[in-house]
């Protein structure tokens, strides 16, 4: 067993890296070195480059973690030589030539539809009134409302960016399914995890599982970090 002491956390769309704070603290308490990527969320290529810049600063084996759209980012950036494991937190895990757009193009019947507003100047936002129920249903309402009012514009080029070579085909992966997710349907999460050959865990949580269930998120990351190699 060779524990990876470095953890890099990658956020998704509409939010920034500050949401990882509780997970960060739990991992730091257990002696891990934790870095947070601040994605520009303008393009998949740019976000992968931002992630690789952080990976370049690591001093040894690293676990790369992505939430939501961050899963597409780590799929693209995860071939970096320092990365020894990938962890998907209610995240997209595209295959070669797939994008977030292609993965959400044909939702299953009856699946909740994320309240994404029509694009404005090439960027997307979630409807403020529907944000708490859709994105953060198990987060305290005042915190969810703050998230709704502090949304990061999500560039359409980020959604359309296609993965060139999926890292999960070469690196071991773990996947945390949020069973109450109303942004990425849980059956779709299971399907992507199975396709990637990921070790799967489940937790009853919303899409904001990293906020509402930080211990479950940290536990899966630690499992990936300590897995035999």
From TrEMBL:
Molecular function in Gene Ontology: catalytic activity
InterPro entries membership: AB_hydrolase_1, AB_hydrolase_fold, Sec-Metab_Biosynth_Hydrolase
Regions crossing the membrane: none
One Pfam family from the record: Abhydrolase_6
Limits of the AB hydrolase-1 domain: 7-219
Signal peptide start-end: none
Designated name of the protein: Pimeloyl-ACP methyl ester carboxylesterase
Organism of provenance: Actinoallomurus bryophytorum
